[in-house]
User: Fold these one by one.
Assistant:
Number 1:
Amino acid sequence: MAAGFKTVEPLEYYRRFLKKNCRADGRELGEFTTTTVNIGSVSTADGSALVKLGNTAVICGIKAEFAAPPPDAPDKGYVVPNVDLPPLCSSRFRSGPPGEEAQVASQFIADVIENSQIILKEDLCISPGKLAWVLYCDLICLDYDGNILDACTFALLAALKNVQLPEVTINEETALAEANLKKKRYLNIRTHPVATSFAVFDDTLLIVDPTGEEEHLATGTLTVVMDEEGKLCCLHKPGGSGLTGAKLQDCLSRAVTRHKEVKKLMDEVIKSMKAK
Amino acid sequence: MGLQLRQTFEAAILTQLHPRSQIDIYVQVLQADGGTYAACVNAATLAVLDAGIPMRDFVCACSAGFVDGTALADLSHVEEAAGGPQLALALLPASGQIALLEMDARLHEDHLERVLEAAARAARDVHTLLDRVVRQHVREASILLGD
């Protein structure tokens, strides 16, 4: 009977739960779903990570290639993110060129990388004006159940921590670059940006980590990206219902706690990998 | 490869039971190290079964090649890149019927028998594994449903 009610009146169904300060899947309003992360599973990539936030699964693969640095910044490399939402993750996506949501997600990730200065582009330079690294970060959603931005940001961070770049020397005589695959170094990850997404219901109620259905019924969404010093890297609020300053402050404090949770999880995973 | 997958599954899926319908099979390769077509077919077989779409039989695939007088089954990327003859075989194991067979590079017809046999044997091994996994999954699912 509940399933019938949910199909006919989904918003009322969710409202009944929210009135009692909990959600349809049993979570509290401020509770995240189970977060799982697996680092380094794609051995053909230079760095990789698979993140699952509840049912949402995103895999990030990073490939490093050589490129000429941009003429206006000869001592910088490139980081090129791309978010792909293929039809296999959800029936709302069609095959073909990237849809609106994929493009927005790609731009969001590019903004997070730029604003948080997660790696210094200068660190990617091999020889100023001649050769630099370009990191292609491919984020593919394998299962879509809401909160794609949080999952992508975490997957990207975990994958970047996994990237090992070989040492490159430029041969003076032939002017060719030689990569020493035996000597590899990890990237210098300067900050750890973590995204926390919220959905707004009926212009008033805020819930954290929305599922696909909750996002669909929500009147607005908000994503906050924090780094470890409590610095705000990015605030993404694409229209939707208005929020008071006080509500926004609540979101920011929740984001700070979430950052601690995620950082702890990632440190544990990396420690267990290094221990092997 | 999309076309090959379509042709393979058109031979196996009982499409007459789903008239005026379109069945979309989306495959995402996360990591490629040779035998990509075979992995796609095996994964798609399990996905189609998981979706409850009726099939004539499992479709099990494997690649095979011929190096230095020896038939090799399930080639890795390095072995494929070496440039020898390669064969991709998709098999319906119960009847032994071949759904798809594609070969490139030159191979003497005397050797074809051996290479085909290597691929077929490997495909049947894959079938044993897939069958076991599917039965295990169904058993667990029916326990959960309380049957």
Number 2:
Amino acid sequence: MTDFLNIALLFIQYTVMTPSVRLQEMIRVIRSARTQGEERGIIQRECADIRSQFRQGDNGERSHSLAKLLYVHMLGYPAHFGQMECVRLIASPRYSEKRIGYLGAMMLLDEKQDASLLITNSIKNDLSHSSQYVQSLALCTLACMGSAEMCRDLAPEIERLLRASHSYIKKKATLCAVHIIRKVPELAELFTPSARTLLSEKNHGVLHGAVVLITELCERNPDTLVQFRKAVPELVQIMKGLVTSSYSPEHNVAGISDPFLQVRILRLLRILGHNNDTASDAMNDLLAQVATNTDSSKTAGSAVLYETVLTIMDINSESGLRVLAVNILGRFLLNNDRNIRYISMTSLQKIVQTDHNAVQRHRGTIVDCLKDQDTSVKRRALELSLALVSAVNIRSMMKELLIFLSVCPPELRSQTASGIFNAAERYSPSKRWHIDTILHVLTTAGGDVRDETVPNLIQLITTASELHCYTVHKLYRALIKDIAQQSLVQVACWCIGEYGDLLLKGECEEIEPVQVTEDDILDALETVLQSHMSSPATRGFALTATMKLSTRITDNVDRIRSIVSIYGSCIDLELQQRAVEYNALFKKYDHMRAAVLERMPVMDKNSPGHTNGDTSGEIKEPDTSKPKPVEAGLLSEPASQVCDLLDLLGGTDTPLQPSPAPTSTPTTTSSADLLDLLGGLEIKPVPTVSVYEKNGLSLKIQCDKQTETEVTVTLIASNSTQNDITNFTLQAAVPKSVQLQMKAPSGNVIPAHGLGQVTQTVLLNNPNKVSLKMRIRVAYSNQGAMHQDTVQIDSFPSAACQPSFSPL
Amino acid sequence: MMHFLLLFSRQGKLRLQKWFLPLPERERKKIVKDMTTMVLARKPRTCNFLHWKDLKIVYKRYASLYFCCALENQDNELMALETLHRYVELLDKYFGNVCELDIIFNFEKAYFILDELLMGGEIQETSKLSIVKSIEASDMLQETEQKRRSEHPSSSEIIQNTTCF
């Protein structure tokens, strides 16, 4: 009994229910699945069913199976096994099967699939089919997924259809031609003659296609463009007809007659009139007419006006027309529709450079758009506002921009901040205003500014020497209020370190006087040092500032010493190194401390994006604290220049002459400036004497007496050959009673052409005061060959330190 | 030129996808995911235009469906909004008060209608009436053929020449 029922049900299911219901039934079943797993199970069953249906061959059900497969494909499941079925169905004589077959081809096949080539023949046949709906299917599919090969094959067929067929087919053939040209640009010539004649068609669909085709032809070939310029009067005529025509229900959209066609014609006119006076003149009247008569209360009208404005601005239109266009955009800015406000601003952005004054008239409205709810509108308003800033309106604009910065969405903050900085740099009315503006930005959005802001601001502050007192007071106040904004804290620390003495003086014309004690300042800096909010770079700033204050304050130098010595055992490598070096400055080099920590000279304006710390590695020198080479990449802020100085002094207390490295970056010159600063010190410049010169390798020495028994010798090696010298090592030997300590060399590669040097320091202790001699062995590789040589230095006279030597 | 047209529900389920450029399957899936994420994240009273890579994305919500298309730089965004609206009007005319379920259960018809409106990423016909007539004629052709087949299952199939309008 149950068997009979099952058979009966199956019978009913497969005969009584029409096939499309079966497709819909499958969709219903799939949608009723409660879990992803359940859905997968159903899909698998259905796919198995579909596969078996395909295998059965022609049974009238193939199209429904393919339709089911296409649904499954849209859900995201693989459907590649349906590709061949598409090919078979397309070749079928039945319209319903062709219809779904072509749809399947467009969805499952693309030009990269091999199966797509197999349908070329079917398409060719269908292009000449007696039914226009079959032809339409073929055209549509070719225009959707036709590969370059298929296009080449079928282009003549399409060209024939362009000329001879009914308008239903003609419009489709035209767009098919557009696709062919996009795929195979060389075939453009084939379609150019027919395109011209299509402009005289009355059918809007064909006309639209023709305009698209001509646009495509002109964009690809400048000669064709010249040719089609002759069509401008005809296009103007068509446009006029559309604009002034009486109501036509078939093409009317919100009172505009065929806005789709109008927009395309305007776009073509734009291309034809660009950079050409005759063509531009011919369309002047028309554009004025469209601009004044089009009703923009609905989107369709606004779209046409928008395209008109774009065309006016892009051709050689007379100034009256341009003003009209900008005014239309200005009117758009006040439109209730957000979309129209948005596109108005995008258009204004395009013309703000060329028609600056015209756009300036709408500045107020644009600035108001900064307060819009929509982020996209806000972004456009921001870009436009920044473009409209000028010397005249800088103060009022900046006020608005700073207000915007405090309320703007986070994704726009860094753009706003950098825009404000650029504007301030170009148009700031006074240095104080400039510094105030930057400080305001750092307080509001310090986390979103670029890295170069800190050195740029510092450089700006040094140049405004009359404002040092004011600046340091302001920064101090900002610092004690909040130490979270790293860039602000860094600048504040630097200023306090540099101008701390001005801070202590208390008076400053432009700020109410406040008594600041030395302890207050040191408290502030220590807070920064100890806070978990401070980044390592910031703490470096704070430590250096603390150190600098040791020469600017009088009472609390011991407190500074203790702070500095605590950080000598800090885990952070950079801080530890600095602390140890500063300690050394207190202990051994105290006589130099004042000079080293002197007020910095005004810095030259570096190129944008340049950071000061990078080239500090040029002058390499081993330090006393750790027997390893100094890190080349120190932190990128000017305070590191002081560190560079100390690094120099760390090894010897002789000022190293600047390496002859031909770097053109400005920082090297500032380093050189600082070295010149040192040149004014009491220390006599020590001559470098050459002791060895052979095969392009030259060795020089400098020596300096530290004490009665200690001498520091610095060996400098340079390479004038074409190739780098690698694996360079020096060994030294001295008489028995002399103690020798060789420090680590700065490196073991000497660049070619004298581009760099390797230095190595040797400390000699001569307690018995014997006459000093040294034998030096050099070993190196050059061009793959190993070299070794020895030099003997016979005497180092104690007083003048002029060595005499003899090469061995 | 339009690069693609997508229809998806408020839960991000894809209802229709039309691609006018050849792209590998994997990339299409990725684009669909990007679009749905971007568009569904938009707040209610924001403008209908977005920027994505070097394309302009235009989207509009009709009841429970989002219509989303991608344009090139020179294309007119406001016109794209009109195009999407035209498509919705055509669906409405065809299905009579169209809703999402109509498009789910008759997705192939939705594609056929779209193929009469757009071709190669460009507008094909600007007259609504014309498109409606073509669709009706194609459907009629399919129906008469199926009727003939069920009446004479063994005879060979010939698609009659249909008159143009």
